[in-house]
Amino acid sequence: MYPTFFDAVAVRADARLRAAEEVGAVLLVTALTAIAAQISIPLPFTPVPFTFQPMVVLVGAAALGSRRGTASQIVYLALGVAGLPVFAASPILPQGALRLLGPTGGYLMSYPFAAFAAGSLAERGFDRRYVTFVLAMACGLAVVFAGGVLWLAAGMQPARGLSSALATGFYPFILPDLAKLLVAASVMPALWRLEGR
Q: I need a labelling partner for 155 at 20 to 30 A (CA). Which of 4, 18, 41, 170 fits?
């Protein structure tokens, strides 16, 4: 196992200070996820908005590792369920716990699992090089899409099901998300190079 970027830069020896650093790092990624949700573009043909959240979830989890990355997304969901306006703004989807029951609920609920996947691969050194980090992020993004599309399919009429879910929750987003992924995948290798200096 490799140290995560957080482990490499957090140098507090005192257990209490180390715990405070961990909590601070988790809350920072939670806040960045909430901020990324506010940069959303509603699309007229789908209830799923275009956001930058998945990239923040995946890069944040790579920096923190699987355990802390997962925790950051669980905190994010808990804040949203509690009614704080951390989910993407939407004229048709409510804030609060009902958002998780709506059409975007599968994407949101997949974030802890995607963070765990990306964080686990980072703990195996996948975040040190661009190509391997693209792979790690692609695995996490696949988790997000699987959760989102399956949730959409379950909520649709049986006759339309999966094909309609793919048309509204996958096909319009896969190319833009892959483009975002290719850009975002440069973040962790660059941070590691800076840390090495």
A: 41
